[in-house]
Specification:
Layout (H helix, E strand, L loop, with lengths): L3 H27 L1 H26 L5 H35 L3 H18 L7 H8 L1 H4 L3 H15 L1 H17 L1 H11 L5 H39 L5 H11 L5 H17 L5 H34 L5 H37 L4 H6 L4
Helix pairs in contact: 2-3, 2-8, 2-10, 3-7, 3-8, 10-11, 10-13, 10-14, 11-12, 12-13
């Protein structure tokens, strides 16, 4: 029989549950920076696994020495990027900070008129349309200066974050076996083997995925750099690096990178003749980037996205598309790793399910 006391106890338990969940979510929100550090450290650990195994098995390094050597390797890579890119970025920031925004607006109108004249647009007065719509008055070209300055401020504040990430990564690498043995003691005996098998498979597949992704970005960066150097683009290293990083975003990233390369090419040639210099070189750069993307889409991506995580290319495309529609760009970036983790877990815990067996037959 349901009494008022039973109802009140149920309401109290429900309220307590809601409060606990709210408190946990608030706590996670407050420590989101730490969670990000842990995620980055985990990814670095997965990327470093092949190097760590080489140091341990081939060179007979101990855990601490292998971890320290790996961290030093990451630091040297980051230092190399800093010496390559920061001086160029600072010089561009100084140029932008001294830029006459009114003059830049005039150059924008001049470029628009050059395009109109070159393509012989006689029935559409783009200049009048721009003035009527007041687009140019709404364009705040000083935004670029503030944007660059904010990036520099962000980079300046990254020191503590990098130290934290490397500190966590060092112990992730050094004490992997210790963490596994502690996990065996904590996990329930009934599901211990399934959970540990899932972790081992996930670690193996994601290591292959992230190492492959890093290799893919390196190849794309080199090809982009070759294209930009061939056509004499200023700051080819920076542009190639930024466009290669955008390839982390499946399908959309390369398109954004190509548009960005075209825009930066045009900006770097402001003051030159539009018809004979700016337009031809921009078209050549865009064509070069499209060729690189064709090579990447038909060679690199199928290997990375399907073979490294043992999934069909169509399967990868659909899950990336669904994740992008649901969660935006972040969803597209994490779609493949998260989907791989789910497949491994489902196969370990529900191997007899027909749908699961079909989806995970290649794992």
């Amino acid at each position: 029989m349901i009494t008022s006391k039973t109802i009140s106890n149920g309401i109290l338990r429900a309220l307590a549950t809601i409060l606990i969940i709210t408190a946990v979510l608030y706590f996670l929100y407050e420590i989101q920076t730490v969670i990000v550090y842990l995620c980055i450290s985990l990814i670095l650990c997965l990327i470093a696994n092949p190097l760590v195994l080489f140091l341990k098995n081939k060179l007979k390094f101990g855990n601490s020495l292998a971890a320290a050597t790996t961290i030093l390797f990451f630091i040297l890579i980051i230092t190399g990027f800093i010496f390559l890119f920061v001086p160029l970025i600072i010089s561009q920031a100084n140029n932008l900070s001294l830029l006459d925004t009114h003059k830049l607006q005039e150059q924008f109108i001049s470029t628009e008129q050059s395009i109109e004249s070159y393509f012989n647009i006689q029935h559409v007065d783009l200049n009048k349309m721009l003035k009527d719509s007041k687009v140019t008055s709404m364009l705040d070209f000083s935004y670029f200066t503030r944007f660059i300055n904010s990036i520099l401020g962000f980079v300046a504040d990254m020191g503590m974050g990098m130290v934290s990430v490397f500190f966590i990564t060092f112990f992730f690498i050094k004490d992997q076996e210790l963490f596994k043995s502690q996990a065996r003691e904590i996990l329930p005996d009934s599901n211990e083997d399934k959970i540990l098998n899932s972790i081992t498979k996930i670690n193996h597949l994601l290591t292959r995925y992230f190492v492959g992704l890093l290799l893919q970005l390196t190849v794309v960066f080199i090809l982009y750099l070759i294209v930009l150097v061939i056509f004499g683009n200023k700051n080819a290293l920076v542009i190639a690096f930024l466009c290669a990083i955008l390839n982390v975003i499946p399908y959309i990233g390369p398109i954004i990178g190509t548009v960005l390369a075209g825009i930066l090419t045009m900006i770097s040639m402001i003051g030159s003749d539009f018809q004979t210099e700016i337009l031809p070189r921009t078209i050549y750069v865009i064509i070069g980037f499209l060729i690189v993307q064709a090579i990447d889409n038909n060679v690199s991506q199928p290997i990375i996205s399907s073979k490294s995580v043992n999934s069909h290319p169509l399967e990868i495309f659909l899950i990336t598309l669904i994740s992008g529609i649901t969660f935006g760009i972040v969803g597209m970036v994490i779609a493949v790793p998260v989907f791989t983790m789910l497949k491994v877990i489902l196969k370990e815990f529900f191997p007899e399910n027909k749908i699961v067996s079909v989806l995970t037959e290649r794992i």
